[in-house]
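batch_manifest entry 22 of 60
target: Multicomponent Na+:H+ antiporter subunit F
source organism: Streptomyces clavifer
requested by: lab member K.T.
priority: normal
notes from requester: please return tokens only, no post-processing; we will run our own comparison against the previous entry in this batch. if the run fails, retry once and flag.
--- input ---
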Amino acid sequence: MSGPETVDRVLLTAAVVVLVVAGMLLLVRIWRGPSMLDRAIALDVCAALIIAGLGARSAAALDSFYFPIMLVLAFLGFTGSVGIARFIAVRDRPPAHRRPAGKEGKG
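--- output ---
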């Protein structure tokens, strides 16, 4: 193996190790929470880690087969994050301020 090929292998191995460690930390964040928003962000990061893992696999194999899959996963991750954010925004919206009955017009 030549010098550049060795450097490529070392960098790809380091990237995979970082992705695995990030995945383990991500699972801890999903498990512990503490809030629903933390879990939602962790799931969005999970999609990004899967995309990064596919990118590393594609670079290691010198194959562009995974690029359309990565694009679809990025789209699904984005739409999922927007959907979860809208759900949380509706759920956490404070109730509308209402005046007590019989108090209209009195200041």
